[in-house]
Structure to design on (430 residues):
């Protein structure tokens, strides 16, 4: 009887370990990327636009699947209006006028596609490329940490219509679900680069799920303050950061994917999968307000290079994650594969008890990384490796190529970036 009880206990432990293996990186009993994503948007044939969106939308408006809309110039949804978009609708950003959709503070976007009928924002160019058009900007009245509790999303937009921030943590700016945003992130002369999706001062009643950004010229997803829940976001081969967090945002990111290319990066300061900052300008920041706190769980970050070692030696690959001073970041049950190094901490972040409590890496799978966790401009990371390498955190280290690490990473049409069962037991050494 004792032997049977012991065997049952061992089997339960084994089953628990198997489940734990399956839980690292993006998860799902099936590949949730199927049906609604597109990894070759350059080859997608589009219909000609038959409707124009321009100027201000100040009344409740519905976009219909039977039409194809072209965004001309800066299009603002104002006056607390609701813009509703039917599943399957295609909206084309005009390249010549830098088509951009701005959901102003108090307005809403209700873009709820379906898994088999996503809503698509894309380029109107025949030869599509990153940065063809502006992007989508959603502005809300949730807290940010700038003086005065408000900010303005500048570039060449109307300052009076791009104010964000307030005190409403639970504000609702609408829904983005089963939506694709392709070839956005245009560079504006004299200004900066647009992001594919900018979410500024947005509250936690807003729904952000199953959104794919492909080939953005700027950041794929940029979060400026607010309080946000987001899941099943996909950034594919963006030129700048995949996920940027700043201005005191409180964010919970779950089950999301960032795929980088060694040959796509911004000229300014390079590009990362995740960049976590508490502010853009220290002089504009009210430090009595909340600093940035991001909790990210079941994230997969990979460089899709077939020769990662050579690309690292050539200087084409940098860190996957960057955490700046005063920011708090918790990354759990996630996969970082093919970076140099996996994580870089701001040079102003001292390695001490207070900061190690704010920056956590637990149950991680670090794979094919040239070093794991470093402080900027400091080559000796012994203290950090000793801390995060402690078995209590459950971090695992491996040197397995992408083809063996992930289920079907090089499937041209329907890639599967889930971790292959058993791979996280590959190595516990560094």
């Amino acid at each position: 009887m004792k032997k049977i009880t012991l065997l049952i206990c061992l089997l339960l432990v084994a089953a628990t370990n198997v489940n734990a293996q399956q839980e690292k990186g993006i998860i799902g009993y099936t590949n949730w990327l199927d049906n609604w994503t597109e990894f070759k948007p350059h080859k997608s044939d589009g219909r000609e636009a038959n409707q124009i969106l321009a100027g201000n939308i100040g009344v409740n408006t519905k976009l219909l699947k039977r039409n194809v809309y072209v965004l001309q110039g800066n299009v603002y949804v104002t006056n607390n209006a609701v813009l509703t978009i039917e599943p399957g609708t295609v909206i084309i950003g005009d390249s010549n006028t830098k088509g951009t959709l701005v959901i102003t503070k108090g307005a809403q976007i209700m873009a709820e596609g379906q898994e088999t009928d996503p809503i698509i924002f894309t380029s109107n160019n025949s030869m599509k490329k990153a940065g063809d058009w502006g992007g989508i900007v959603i502005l809300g009245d949730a807290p940010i940490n700038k003086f005065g509790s408000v900010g303005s999303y500048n570039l060449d937009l109307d300052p009076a219509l791009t104010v964000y921030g307030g005190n409403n943590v639970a504000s609702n700016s609408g829904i983005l679900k089963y939506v694709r945003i392709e070839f956005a992130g245009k560079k504006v002369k004299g200004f900066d680069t647009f992001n594919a999706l900018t979410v500024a001062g947005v509250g936690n009643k807003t729904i952000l799920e199953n959104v794919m950004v492909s080939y953005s010229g700027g950041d794929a997803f940029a979060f400026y303050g607010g309080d946000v829940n987001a899941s099943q976001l996909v950034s594919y081969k963006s030129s700048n950061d995949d996920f940027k967090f700043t201005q005191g945002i409180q964010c919970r990111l779950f089950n999301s994917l960032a795929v980088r290319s060694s040959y796509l990066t911004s000229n300014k300061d390079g590009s990362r999968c995740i960049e976590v900052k508490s502010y853009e300008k220290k002089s504009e920041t009210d430090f009595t307000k909340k600093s940035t706190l991001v909790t990210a769980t079941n994230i997969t970050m990979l460089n899709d290079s077939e020769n990662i070692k050579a690309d690292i030696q050539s200087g084409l690959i940098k860190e996957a994650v960057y955490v700046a001073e005063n920011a708090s970041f918790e990354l759990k049950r996630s996969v970082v594969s093919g970076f140099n190094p996996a994580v870089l901490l701001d040079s102003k972040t001292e390695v001490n008890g207070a900061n190690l409590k704010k920056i956590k890496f637990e149950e991680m799978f670090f794979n094919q990384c040239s070093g794991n966790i470093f402080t900027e401009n400091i080559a000796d990371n012994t203290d950090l490796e000793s801390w995060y390498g402690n078995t209590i955190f459950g971090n695992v280290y491996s040197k397995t190529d992408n083809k063996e690490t992930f289920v079907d990473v090089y499937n041209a049409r329907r890639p599967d970036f889930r971790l292959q069962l058993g791979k996280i037991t590959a190595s516990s050494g560094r």
About this structure: The helical segments are 2-22, 308-313, 353-358, 382-388, 402-405. DSSP finds five helices and 30 strands in the chain. The longest strand covers residues 250-260. Residues 52-304 form one domain.
